[in-house]
Amino acid sequence: MIRDLPLDSNTTARSFRSTGMGICKIAATTGLAVALLIGPATLSGHADELDDQYAQLQTQLEASQGGINASRSELDGANAVLVDSQAQLERAQAALAAAQAAESSAQERAISASVALQTAEQNLEAAQDAVDAAQLAVDEQRKRVGIAAQQESQQDKSLQGIGVFLSNLNTGDINNRVQWMTNTVGTVQRELDALNAALDELEKQRDAMAAAEKAAQAARDAALAQFEETQRKSLEAMNAANEVAVQVASSQSAMQAAQDVFDAALDADEGLRNRAAGLAAKIQARNDAAAAAAAAAAQASAASWVSAQTSWVTANVASGQLQPFSVDQAMARAQSMVGNMNYGNMCLALVATFYGYSSSGVNSATDAARMITSAGQMQYDLSNIPVGALVFYDGSPAGNPFGHVAMYAGDGMIFSNGASNGGVGMMSLYTPANSWGEPIIGWSSVWLPYATA
To answer: Within this chain, do residues 234 and 373 fall inside the same structural domain, yes or no?
Structure first.
């Protein structure tokens, strides 16, 4: 709650003129001296070195981040190439598997066709053997038919010639003999016809077998051709898959190389960040030490300023005024008077008593406020009221022509009569305004020119 005193105070102005430096200027000068001691004199060289190192590391980290981004792009590109080549390899391997399956199927068909051809050839060979055997039988039967026919012809003529000369062979006997020969020839001819029919059938079967053998030969040749074609395609697919596998291996190598570069960039970046963190910790420790030193200096300066300010409360008095108690003495007396019931409606007399006076020499707080305002000593910044200052309230809104005055105790509190205990005590700075309807006018030093001892 203690801050600079207003510069429009006449006494303050006189003090500035007489000493060449006000309380606030003293405090500011003290703070500046502390800052100069902590900064340039004590930490300048070390601070510059740490900050320069940290700035250099930040520059290196920016470059490192750029390197990481570049290597990440290269890694992404290598990975994309690898993924694409792996996809190509999968497609090539699928094509190879399909080609090998087709080759295997064609091989099975070629083997089946070869077996079928072999069977057809065997069947044709057996059919040909049967035809040859039948042909031999037919040829043999034809010979028999020829011989029988020749014999029949010869015998018929002989019997007829002999019959003329031989009396024991009648015509009937001769005819019977001729008929027998004719029957014999007919039997042989029928056997020949049967053999010819069998031969014809066997030849048909042989021709069918030959056609089947020819078809089997064609089927086998086609199956072999298809098998050779599938072998060629399978070999092409294998070569293509091998080429893609080489590309995949190359892509994997490139990917690993890019990964190594990226990992190295990350490691280097981590090292820089660790160094930067170490420097940041040193800088923080330096700053903390500087801040602690500055805080200590500021506290000392503030203590000096507070002392000067509280001294101002009792030093800034009217010309010829009797010297009041110090603020510490006034605070001690106020504390000792807490609970005193003898100052009802005697607020000005009470604050005069705090400062060792027997009388304020003024009739009311309202008169004292007018006198202080006329002297230019009334202050209005409520955020900087010094301990011990006299705080004046306007009683006219509440119908109190005498007004009210109290002594500021710090931390937003005042020593006043009319406290909650019924007598002298502490209350909020704003209780008279909020509870009694008497707004704050302002505050001043112990400006009581007519006070008596």
So the answer is: no
Residue 143 within any structural domain of the chain: yes
Average pLDDT over residues 430-447: 98
User: Which of 253, 268, 283 is a domain's end point?
Assistant: 268
User: Domain containing 97 — which CATH number?
Assistant: 1.10.287
Q: Are residues 91 and 148 in the same domain?
A: yes
Other residues' Cβ atoms within 10 Å of the Cβ of residue 215: 13
This prediction has a pTM of 0.41
Q: What is the share, in percent, of the chain residues with pLDDT greater than 90?
A: 62
Q: What is the pLDDT at residue 73?
A: 93
Q: Using one digit for the tens of pLDDT, what is the confidence trace for 179-197? A: 766 777 788 888 889 988 9
Question: Residues 362, 450: contact at Cβ < 8 Å?
Answer: yes
What's 372's domain CATH number?
Answer: 3.90.1720.10
Do 94 and 182 sit in the same domain of this protein? yes
Q: State both tokens at 448.
A: 């009581």
Kindly tell me if the per-residue pLDDT of 7 is higher than 70: no
- Residues 214-232 have pLDDT tens digits of 999 999 999 999 999 999 9
Domain interval for residue 102: 65-268
Q: How many domains does the chain have?
A: 2
Of 268, 298, 333, the last residue of a domain is 268
Q: Which strands make up the sheet holding 440-444, listed edge to edge?
A: 425-428, 413-416, 404-410, 390-393, 440-444
At 35-88, the pLDDT tens digits run 333 444 444 556 578 888 889 989 999 999 999 999 999 999 999 999 998 999
Residue 187 lies in a domain: yes
Is the CB of residue 419 less than 8 Å from the CB of residue 435?
no
Q: How far is CA 17 from CA 25, 94, 203, 377, 447, in A?
A: 13, 102, 154, 17, 20
Is 32 contained in some domain?
Answer: no
Are 97 and 184 contained in the same domain?
A: yes
Residue 353 confidence class, pLDDT cut points 50, 70, 90:
very high
Q: Which of 315, 310, 384, 343 is nearest to 352 (CA)?
A: 343
pLDDT of residue 39: 44
